[in-house]
Structure of Sugar fermentation stimulation protein homolog:
Amino acid sequence: MIFSEKLVHGRLIKRYKRFLADVELDDGTEVTAHCTNSGTMKSCLEDGAEVYLTPVNDPKRRTKFTWEMIKINGDWVGINTNNPNKIAFEAVRDNQIPELSGYDTVKREVKFGDSRFDVMAQKEGETCFIEVKNVTMKVGEAALFPDAVTTRGRKHLNTLMEVKKQGMRAVMLYIIQRVDVDRFGPADDIDPEYGKALREAYREGVEIIPMQAEVTPEGIELVRKLEFEL
């Protein structure tokens, strides 16, 4: 995924009210940016850290910037939760993930029952529903999800199990927007019910694919699949 706008550099002053972040730009101007990440952002928040923002030219928006990434311990961490869906769609469409290659049709935001999955891919004789999650939390050398209790996430896992029962392929795709981790797992200390649901889904045939992405001010690129521990 390539950023369509040139990003604006600054330093984080503070994040507050979940969806807002004050940033000092390089010219000394203080601006408020929209933070798409509603979680705790544990392990990817540091006052004074370098950040990049996307300028937004929308008269209806109160905030004129969207917060894209933050530099933690020398590496960029992507915190925009809207980007993983775009990354996943492009990756499946362009056959960038070996386990999800070879599909003729790839669509975004496809409804199944009372849920809506991020990606649906089809080829002759096979339909695959893919749910995408953004991962930013680091504990030790592992990337963990979620960083806050998520009833919505558990619902998606239950629906993926229903997809599998109906004879279709069901995939849980985690986009890990940091390169300083080497494996993936559920954050049982934060949401043990999600971890329980993920293990059940895996036993029922739902596939787990954790993909690590390198984040830069120019774009975000998938670099490798990580091992996972349940």
User: Anything to note?
Assistant: The first strand starts at residue 8 and ends at 16. Residues 8-74 form a domain with the OB fold (Dihydrolipoamide Acetyltransferase, E2P) fold (CATH 2.40.50.580). The mean pLDDT is 96.
